[in-house]
Amino acid sequence: MHDANRDKLIVALDLPDATKARAMIERLGDAVTFYKIGMELAYGGGFALVDELARAGKHIFLDLKLHDIGHTVEKATAQIARLGVRFVTVHAFPQTLAAAARGARGSALQVLGVTVMTSYDDSDLVTAGYRLNVRELVALRARQAKEAGIAGLILSPEELKATRALVGADLLLVTPGVRPAGAALDDQKRVATPSDALKRGANHLVVGRPIISAPDPHAAALAIQKEIAEVCA
Ligand code: C5P
């Protein structure tokens, strides 16, 4: 049922509660094999969906962006691994990366590091007390994520090429900010089409509103799957 190309599309279930999310999963049917549950849905009853999705044979990405003392991150990651989830995010700080890698060890859970939030620019980093600009901090954290032995990184389409060159083929690169040609940008500023993101080195594309807010979400998902299948043929 899972084919590697179909699993490249991850649909962000950015919906307020599990009832609305269930209805969307039903509409999307076989067009989607991989779902992302973020903080809004997780804290709105979304954890109940994890088991349902797993039983339906879907992959799950829990986008919880963990960050705490190492002991807590390790224990939380181990709990998440027991839920049968495939991806979880953590902020890419060295202690957090190492702790999450320990927590996921021996399980099928893959840890993804969030390098620098895409809502931050260079001046936000100065205000927060950093000496590096965004590009330098992304590169540093990508190297540290690789050293920690986690599975991959979350990056904007803009950072894909340079990061792929830096980390080689070892890490999964997962990118939001994907917009089919002609689609509304919403509040995304640095976007790429599905084909461009894949050509720049992405392994998985996270797509929310272009699918879940489309008049026909099933058709919108199938159109992206077709584009992925053509690029990855
Ligand atoms: O609706 P849209 O396709 O813009 O959704 C993208 C998804 O990726 C959302 O769940 C959003 O929170 C997430 N995301 C993002 N940019 C980041 C990290 C996560 O858009 N830097």
Automatic annotation (TrEMBL):
Question: What Gene Ontology molecular function terms does this protein carry?
Answer: orotidine-5'-phosphate decarboxylase activity
Q: Which ranges carry the Orotidine 5'-phosphate decarboxylase domain?
A: 8-224
Annotated positions binding substrate = 14, 36, 63-72, 118, 179, 188, 208-209
Q: E.C. number, please?
A: 4.1.1.23
The record ties this protein, via InterPro entries, to: Aldolase_TIM, OMPdecase, OMPdecase_AS, OMPdecase_bac, OMPdeCOase_dom, RibuloseP-bd_barrel
Asked if the Swiss-Prot or TrEMBL record annotates the protein with the keyword Methyltransferase, the reply is no
The catalytic residues are K65
Q: Name the catalysed reactions.
A: orotidine 5'-phosphate + H(+) = UMP + CO2
This protein's UniProt keywords: Decarboxylase, Lyase, Pyrimidine biosynthesis
Pfam families reported in the protein's UniProt record: OMPdecase (PF00215)
Record pathway:
Pyrimidine metabolism; UMP biosynthesis via de novo pathway; UMP from orotate: step 2/2
**What SUPFAM superfamilies does its record include?**
Ribulose-phoshate binding barrel
Q: How does it assemble?
A: Homodimer.
Which family does the UniProt entry place this protein in?
A: Belongs to the OMP decarboxylase family. Type 1 subfamily.
**According to its UniProt entry, what is the function of this protein?**
Catalyzes the decarboxylation of orotidine 5'-monophosphate (OMP) to uridine 5'-monophosphate (UMP).
Q: Which HAMAP family match?
A: OMPdecase_type1_B
- Write down what this protein is called: Orotidine 5'-phosphate decarboxylase
Species of origin reads Candidatus Rhodoblastus alkanivorans
